[in-house]
Design a protein that fits this description.
The complex is a heterodimer of chains A (200) and B (262).
Chain A lengths: L1 H8 L15 H6 L4 H25 L8 H23 L1 H7 L1 H4 L5 H9 L6 H31 L1 E2 L2 E2 L9 H4 L1 H18 L7
Antiparallel strand pairs in A: 1-2
Chain B lengths: L5 H45 L5 H6 L2 H11 E7 L5 E5 L13 H9 L5 E6 L4 E8 L4 E8 L6 E8 L9 H4 L1 H5 L15 E3 L10 E3 L5 H26 L6 H12 L1
Helix pairs in contact in B: 1-3, 7-8
The chains are: A mainly alpha (200), B alpha+beta (262).
């Protein structure tokens, strides 16, 4: 059980895909302008990452080693297209806002990275948890970044105005470079708290 | 079993791909009606927002079914016209059979080529005529609906949308109600050079057809300006004919107009 706990907690804290492994940076710059989009993106990545880890783990003993990357890619692509189709049918407004980024989850290094590093060598249940936890670790950073960007860039949260009219929204915050600056600050804070992450 | 043999690899990948394709085909087929209903309701609510039948968000919140119903209750007639302003075909407006031209891209190409475009015209019972505009923004297409009052010149309202303009900058064409609000009461100057003018400091000159571009969104504004002018130019023969005192020969009038311009 201790091992399972580690599987779940590690991707969220010590081995966070964004702040420690520095994976999935591109989408964290692109979809963090508004909280709503960031939340849906986070949920989509959690679903894709968890389910594709589960499927690959179930198939792991049958996959021919030489074509394993291609098989993984097919599984991930299947999951991403399913998520996209369901969003188009049941959450059309949000899907419109995220546009191409849902499709680009396929290229998100976190998904392939966890399959290759974990799901191929572990039983289905731990693989599922690992995938979900990594998706969650990614989503957490996404939501934190989106919180600050929407608050400072538009003066709103989830589309509702929270800052008074006297606050003039900062246009820099809306542009991708600010997400990078913010991410840098988060990584800095993370390392300052967790001494183990600091290089000697 | 030897999972590394060639035969196994080929069979394995074939089976995986076929299974995945089958799953995707099934899901896409079963969700398609729902997805298309979403697109249709979205288009209708954008049109009705332009025609001042409600705020876009409120209309969308009605749910797909009620949006369709509200449209069919308020629409008078819908039809398509060609580049000469002649009517081509009727579009269904009954609740069960609402026909739309919601894929504007091919029409935009047809306008550029001067070919046989079929441009939709939606006339509401309030006397307002709604027509679409479509063009290229900074990152992707921008489009919208412009509603004209009974005189076919004065703008009653407008609604704009985009695929991927920068949030907070170009995306303001959709997000900011004050922007589309500025179009209300302006005029499209059919028959003159420059039907509409959406550009920097345009309002300062005090012209009837001018709206200021959005600060920080120069390219999006330019694209939208181009979209509005291209499409209204394409509709020009129709509107000129429609507002001329009821003659039986709108086609000829339109044709003469055209030669004068050239």
């Amino acid at each position: 059980m201790a091992n399972l706990k580690e599987t779940i907690l590690n991707p969220i804290l010590k081995g966070n895909p964004i702040t420690v492994l520095v994976l999935g940076i591109c989408s964290s710059l692109a979809v963090t302008v508004q909280l709503k989009g960031a939340c849906v993106m986070a949920l989509s990545v959690i679903a894709v990452c968890g389910l594709s880890s589960l499927i690959v783990s179930l198939l792991r003993n049958t996959i021919p080693n030489r074509v394993r990357i291609i098989v993984q890619l097919v599984v991930v692509a299947l999951m991403v297209i399913l998520v996209d189709q369901f969003l188009k049918a049941y959450a059309y407004a949000v899907d419109k806002q995220l546009s191409v980024y849902i499709g680009l989850i396929i290229t998100n290094c976190i998904v392939m990275g966890r399959i290759e590093a974990f799901a191929l060598g572990n039983k289905p249940i731990p693989s599922l948890l690992d995938g979900l936890a990594n998706g969650f670790g990614y989503g957490l950073i996404l939501v934190v970044v989106a919180f600050f960007r929407e608050l400072l860039g538009s003066g709103t949260l989830f589309g509702f105005q929270v800052l008074p009219d006297a606050y003039i929204p900062n246009n820099l915050v809306i542009l991708p470079p600010f997400a990078l600056i913010l991410l840098g600050c988060i990584i800095w804070a993370h390392r300052a708290f967790d001494k183990e992450l600091q290089e000697k | 079993m030897n999972t590394n043999s060639n035969v196994y690899t080929v069979i394995y990948t074939t089976v995986i791909v076929v299974v995945v394709a089958a799953v995707l085909a099934f899901v896409a087929m079963s969700l398609k009606p729902k997805q298309q209903a979403n697109i249709k309701a979205e288009t209708l609510s954008q049109m009705m927002a332009a025609a001042q039948l409600g705020e876009k968000d409120e209309l969308s919140a009605l749910g797909n079914d009620n949006v369709l119903r509200k449209y069919s209750e308020n629409i008078d007639k819908a039809f398509t016209v060609n580049l000469k302003g002649e009517k081509v075909a009727d579009l269904g407006t009954a609740y069960e059979n609402i026909e739309l031209i919601d894929n504007l891209k091919p029409q935009d190409k047809a306008i550029d080529a001067g070919g046989d475009a079929t441009l939709p015209v939606y006339v509401f019972k309030s006397g307002v005529t709604v027509v679409p505009v479509y063009g290229a923004g900074l990152w992707g297409p921008v489009w919208g609906y412009v509603a004209f009052q009974g005189d076919n010149r004065t703008i009653a309202g407008a609604y704009f949308d985009h695929e991927s303009e920068t949030p907070g900058l170009g995306a303001k064409i959709k997000d900011e109600p004050w922007f589309r609000g500025k179009f209300i009461g302006k005029k499209a100057l059919f028959g003159e050079n420059g039907i509409f003018n959406l550009s920097k400091n345009a309002e300062a000159e005090g012209a009837d057809n001018a709206v200021d571009a959005i600060t920080g969104a120069t390219m999006t504004s330019k694209g939208l300006n181009e979209a509005i002018n291209t499409w209204l130019k394409a509709y020009e023969p129709y509107f000129t004919a429609a507002s001329a005192p009821a003659e039986e020969v709108p086609a000829e009038e339109a044709a003469t107009e055209k030669t004068e311009e050239e």
